[in-house]
Amino acid sequence: MTIKIHDIAKHLNLSNSTVSKALNGYDDVSMTTRELVMKTAVEMGYQPSAAARNLRRGRTDKIGLFLNTSVEYVVDYLSGIISGAVMTAQGLSKNLLIYTIADNNPNQLLKVCRAGEIDGVILFSTHYDQNTIDTLLADNFPFVVMGRAIQDERVSYVVPDYYTGSYQATQYLIDLGHRRIAFTTRPELTTANEARFKGYMDALVDAGLEYDEALVAPTFIEPDSGVQATKQFTSLDKQPTAICAFHDLVAVNVMNTLTKLGYRVPDDVSVMGFDGLRSGLMIHPQITTMAQPLPLIGQRVIEIVNQQIDNDVAMPIQETVPVELVTRQSTATILQRC
Amino acid sequence: MTIKIHDIAKHLNLSNSTVSKALNGYDDVSMTTRELVMKTAVEMGYQPSAAARNLRRGRTDKIGLFLNTSVEYVVDYLSGIISGAVMTAQGLSKNLLIYTIADNNPNQLLKVCRAGEIDGVILFSTHYDQNTIDTLLADNFPFVVMGRAIQDERVSYVVPDYYTGSYQATQYLIDLGHRRIAFTTRPELTTANEARFKGYMDALVDAGLEYDEALVAPTFIEPDSGVQATKQFTSLDKQPTAICAFHDLVAVNVMNTLTKLGYRVPDDVSVMGFDGLRSGLMIHPQITTMAQPLPLIGQRVIEIVNQQIDNDVAMPIQETVPVELVTRQSTATILQRC
DNA sequence: GCACAGTACGAAAACGATTTCGCTAATTAT
DNA sequence: ATAATTAGCGAAATCGTTTTCGTACTGTGC
């Protein structure tokens, strides 16, 4: 029912080839027929079949991003990235496609890539394993890892500067006069988590402060994991005057937990977040945070994948993008407490 | 480089037809060859080309949802819906694809549909106009409108019961003893907004309360539009003791604004939300809200679109799904104030 | 008038799968 | 033993584009 290139050709007494060439800007077609073809194409509402086009061209001009629904909080993180990615993709005449996959569908990503539904893929940290990476490398399929510094020279990645971010966050609290600064992050020994922890440690050491094991607690991607950590901190004899959380949603949770326990933020305890998510803005007091340049990350992953698609890539690109302190209302000088 | 059906055939001394039939469950292939084919298919890592498959079959088994990046808050709403939609789609062997489009690309939706990239599309309220609907209808392309009750007998939709939700929200506040209840919603005269307003009005009237124009203010999808509305309410001589917002993000903003102005929630003013978004949970006090059954909405839109794809649809399906009062901490009886 | 270049178009071969149809060989019925 | 059926496979058409290659025609230079 939808109209095909053949319909235009028949209608104008032309061949399929000429119509196709007119539409695709080939130069062996006269000005007059070209204009005629383009005019009737829009009149008849012609839209080339994606399937036929992809089959013949061997590419789709689409870049994929995978979302599994179990971790709803990541959308908060991704929405900032996506806006940057979409802008960039549009400039390159590419499309960003988000695949929503069920949680029990482990290797759908590989299927989609092998099936040629997309030309390249962005691997978000929640969403890959070593097998995926090995297979993509073996297939020579364009991909870039986002948000984690893979220890593999063959893969490209874009990652925020967790170390410096964590260092500066801690230093900022120290500059505010805090001396007992609690820290909470994911316990898994990934490069990201290790960088965060090292930034915290180094800032303490450089300021001549002592590291206290009791001031470190594990939290997870789930925001309510902040409850446990907060209770651990507040039950100490020597309570911290500031808490540094590894992402804003946990920070929000920590702050709410503190409030429920009767502490005032930032008067009694300062709370520091990470990532610069929208949720940190929507609360009172708003969360001071180390903001990631989310749109920039989106831009770079698209650009890097696109280079691989165009085959003009000499070496894998491994990039660290800077994070930035955003001072808001959940942190205060320690003097304010008295 | 990727392996094709022909490679398997050659490797087993079979024809393409037989291999294809073995893989697709045709019955004119012997048990032994079938098993042989399937085994070597996985061994060789075969994955059928999506383009070739779609071209031949004339369908993609994909359902599309469009996201424009300018309105970041909708992801909060959509993430609940998506999880329901994905589950349902998986049961039907369909895939849910999210198209992220740049804001300056108005009719990309129609292009994607006409190009046959997807078999059906979910029209989210922020994302269609009359022309889109007319064209889809003319093309006989499967689609369903989500979140708005279109006044058009030819189109299917799934919409939450805004009227009853708004009525019950208001009634709940009345039952708590409130007599001056402010209301804020989008000013555009859509069916949704009118239903919300009518629910509020009817609840007031049924309780014998008087409608006061000063207690109604416009807010928009942008959360910070709550600031203006809140200031309008608090500057009144006869201030409201409860504020009913049309979605949770605005409610959160109203609550924060009240806090900044020195009011306590719920002690001084009760705040009521709508939608049941995650953000309403992540704040202290948590927002009392009329929750939409988001996963159910996702389930139904997929099922309805799928029926259209399978062509077994007699009449357009227009569904209203119930909303539910979720009592949390931002509302309290008026007695508590004394 | 002849060779030659250039212009504008069409025929046909891909792309990789699915599916119809026909054919052989083996099995069953008569 | 012959006819009829069936099981198992292959040839080839098809989906709608893109792109290569060939060709007819026009115009130019000598």
* CA(first)-CA(last) distance of chain A: 77 Å
Strand order of the largest sheet of chain A: 2-1-3-4-5-11
Mean pLDDT over the residues of chain A? 93
Annotation, overall tally of beta strands of chain A: 12
Largest protein interface, residues of each chain: A-B, 59 and 59 residues
Uncertain stretches of chain A: none
Q: What percent of the residues of chain A sit in helical stretches (DSSP H or I)?
A: 40-55%
Any idea what the radius of gyration of chain A is?
26 Å
Largest sheet of chain A: 6 strands, parallel
Q: Could you state the order of secondary-structure elements of chain A as H and E?
A: HHHHEHEHEHEEHEHEHEHEEHEE
Question: What structural class is derived from the secondary structure elements of chain A?
Answer: alpha/beta
Structure description:
2 copies of one chain form a homodimer. The first copy, chain A, is an alpha/beta fold and 338 residues long. The first copy, chain A, has helices spanning 5-12, 16-23, 31-43, 50-57, 74-91, 108-114, 130-139, 162-175, 191-206, 225-234, 248-260, 294-309, and strands spanning 62-68, 95-101, 120-124, 143-146, 157-160, 181-185, 216-218, 242-245, 270-275, 288-291, 318-321, 324-326. In chain A, helix 8 runs parallel beside helix 9 (191-206). Chain A is elongated and about 90 Å long. The mean pLDDT of chain A is 93. Chain B binds a DNA duplex (30 and 30 nucleotides) through helix 2 and helix 4.
